[in-house]
Design brief:
Number of domains: 1
Helix content: 25-40%
Structural class: alpha/beta
Number of helices: 4
Radius of gyration: 14 Å
Order of helices and strands: HEHEEHHE
C-alpha cells in the first residue's frame, strides 16, 4: 500500500476498521508503518463498551447508521476515552 501512496506523495493515511473485531487485523500499529498509517475504529456506542484496542489513534462515530444522536448519553464514555487517550473523534454526518 505504501508504494501507491508514495506515487501520489501521500505521507500519512487513516485506515478505518468498520467491522467488529477488525481493528487488530487492519489498523494495528505494529508492522503497518505506525508513523504513516493511523488506525481508527468505528464504534456503535449503543451496543459497545467504551474501549478500543491499543495502537488505535481514532474513534469513528456514524450516528445515521447506528441510530443515535451525537448528544446521546451512550456517546459520552467514548468522548471521555478519547480525551484520556488523546484519540481523534471522527463523526460521519451523512447516510
Amino acid at each position: 500500500m505504501g508504494g501507491e501512496l508514495d506515487r501520489y506523495s501521500v505521507s500519512k493515511s487513516v485506515l478505518i476498521a468498520s467491522l467488529p473485531g477488525d481493528a487488530g487485523l487492519r489498523c494495528g500499529s505494529s508492522g503497518s508503518g505506525p508513523d504513516r498509517f493511523y488506525g481508527y475504529v468505528m464504534v456503535n456506542p449503543k451496543i459497545q463498551p467504551a474501549a478500543v484496542p491499543d495502537g488505535i489513534r481514532g474513534i469513528c462515530l456514524f450516528p445515521a447508521m447506528h441510530g443515535f444522536g451525537i448528544n446521546d448519553a451512550a456517546v459520552a464514555p467514548f468522548l471521555e476515552l478519547a480525551e484520556r487517550r488523546r484519540l481523534t473523534v471522527f463523526v460521519h454526518c451523512g447516510v
